[in-house]
């Protein structure tokens, strides 16, 4: 699964479409006895592993469930503080599920608007006049590609760093948007895209791009 | 349209007669609904606007053209690429002002009026193809170019040629961050 996600951002910076295309990451659920080998600490609204990576549980993983019941932020399902619960030897042995916290839709909205602003800042920082905004953002685990149309819509694709052919994929997504979203008379411009055909065709295009692999799609 | 070359991806063609008939039916129905010609013209323009704001992305996606750097480039693009793509005709472009923001597209062939002879007497000031004006206006607005688009001459009204006038108004906003 080399293409991780697709985001479509409208002119005002609001997220109008989002698709996660990767296989769900494996969560690790294990039974532990007192004392826990991990160093846990609160982070944002979650309890996160700060140190003590082992057995598939990595630093940065959040506590997702305690004894089978999903946690609610920093509290267990029955309202007890997770850290307090886990520091009490009487509660052991306990079964905890660790995993990477998936972004909630609010967080995605916020990140998309933030990217919209950074994109604008990028084009302003440029020493050349009339420069484009951020076209690619590279990290060691993924590459973010962004294509802004002349009408101001941005298509953002997060993919494996070795995946080629993302430029043509972005153009293809633009075509799919202009076909299945814009030509749908019941779709209002700038609003979240809820068109079944758009979803289907987008997934098809992603699969075609992935199959082409690191060498890019053939023309 | 079915006669336009260059759209190789098109698997299914629709007959141009169907489009012409549909457009004719639309105008005829509007004429029944509205007494005054101005109302029909406004309605057609509004409909065209709704089409234009969506058509622009289709045009940009399929033609992959670069951003136009001047009004004259934009007018040329509309005439030579857009009209060719959607109607199969290529109007000629002339600049009709020294300020460089007024242009005319002269259409010698217009598929929409192929089967229309002349306007009836009671509809003398009807702009039959006003939809096209709305389309151009809507499309330009989405790429942040405010314009006024009207029919300056119309063969259906007895003029020699059909002429669409595009007047670019001051840029809608003066944005510091430009799009690519």
TrEMBL record, chain A:
Cited function: Core component of the TRAPP complexes which has a function of guanine nucleotide exchange factor activity for Rab1 GTPase. Plays a role in vesicular transport from endoplasmic reticulum to Golgi and autophagy. May play a role in dendrite postsynaptic membrane trafficking.
GO BP terms, alphabetized: endoplasmic reticulum to Golgi vesicle-mediated transport
Gene name, Swiss-Prot/TrEMBL: Trappc4
Primary localisation category: endoplasmic reticulum
A family per Pfam: Sybindin
Presence of keyword Transport: yes
Name the UniProt record assigns to this protein: Trafficking protein particle complex subunit
Domain of life: Eukaryota
Any one of the GO CC terms: postsynaptic membrane
Gene3D superfamilies linked to this entry: 3.30.450.70
Family, as annotated: Belongs to the TRAPP small subunits family. TRAPPC4 subfamily.
Keywords (A to Z) from UniProt: Cell membrane, Endoplasmic reticulum, ER-Golgi transport, Golgi apparatus, Membrane, Postsynaptic cell membrane, Synapse, Transport
Annotated localization: Endoplasmic reticulum; Golgi apparatus, cis-Golgi network; Golgi apparatus membrane; Postsynaptic cell membrane
TrEMBL record, chain B:
Main location: endoplasmic reticulum
Location(s) in or outside the cell: Endoplasmic reticulum; Golgi apparatus, cis-Golgi network
Example of a GO cellular component annotation carried by this entry: endoplasmic reticulum
InterPro entries for this protein: Bet3, NO_sig/Golgi_transp_ligand-bd, TRAPP_component
Transmembrane portions of the chain: none
Origin superkingdom: Eukaryota
Parts forming coiled coils: none
Function: May play a role in vesicular transport from endoplasmic reticulum to Golgi.
UniProt record similarity statement: Belongs to the TRAPP small subunits family. BET3 subfamily.
Protein name: Trafficking protein particle complex subunit 3-like protein
Taxonomy of the source species: Eukaryota, Metazoa, Chordata, Craniata, Vertebrata
């Amino acid at each position: 699964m080399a293409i991780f996600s697709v985001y479509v951002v409208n002119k005002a910076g609001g997220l109008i479409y989002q698709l996660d295309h990767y296989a769900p990451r494996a969560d690790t659920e294990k039974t532990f006895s007192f004392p826990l080998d991990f160093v846990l600490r609160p982070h944002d609204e979650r309890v996160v592993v700060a140190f003590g990576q082992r057995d598939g549980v990595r630093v940065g993983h959040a506590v997702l469930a305690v004894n089978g019941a999903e946690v609610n932020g920093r509290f267990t399902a029955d309202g007890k503080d997770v850290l307090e619960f886990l520091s009490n030897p009487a509660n052991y042995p306990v079964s905890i599920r660790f995993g990477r916290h998936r972004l909630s839709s609010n967080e995605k909205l916020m990140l998309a608007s933030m990217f919209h602003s950074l994109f604008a800042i990028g084009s302003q920082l440029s020493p050349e006049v009339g420069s484009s905004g951020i076209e690619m953002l590279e990290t060691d685990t993924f590459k973010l590609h962004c294509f802004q149309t002349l009408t101001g819509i941005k298509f953002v694709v997060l993919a494996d760093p070795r995946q080629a052919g993302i430029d043509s994929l972005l153009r293809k997504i633009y075509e799919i948007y202009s076909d299945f979203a814009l030509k749908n008379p019941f779709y209002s411009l700038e609003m979240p895209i809820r068109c079944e055909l758009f979803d289907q065709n987008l997934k098809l295009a992603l699969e075609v791009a992935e199959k082409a692999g690191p060498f890019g799609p053939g023309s | 349209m079915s006669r336009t070359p260059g759209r190789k991806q098109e698997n299914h063609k629709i007959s141009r007669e169907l489009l012409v008939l549909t457009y004719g039916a639309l105008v005829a129905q509007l004429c029944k609904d509205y007494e005054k010609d101005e109302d029909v013209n406004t309605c057609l323009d509004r409909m065209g606007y709704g089409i234009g704001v969506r058509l622009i992305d289709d045009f940009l996606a399929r033609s992959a053209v670069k951003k136009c750097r001047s009004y004259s480039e934009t007018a040329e693009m509309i005439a030579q690429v857009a009209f060719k793509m959607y109607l199969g005709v290529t109007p000629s472009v002339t600049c009709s002002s020294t300020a460089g923001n007024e242009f005319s597209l002269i259409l010698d062939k217009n598929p929409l009026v192929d089967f229309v002879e002349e306007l009836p007497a009671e509809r003398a000031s009807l702009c039959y193809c006003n939809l096209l004006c709305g389309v151009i206006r809507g499309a330009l607005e989405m790429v942040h170019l405010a314009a006024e688009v009207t029919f300056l001459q119309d063969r259906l009204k007895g003029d020699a040629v059909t002429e669409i006038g595009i007047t670019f108004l001051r840029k809608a906003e003066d944005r510091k961050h430009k799009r690519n």
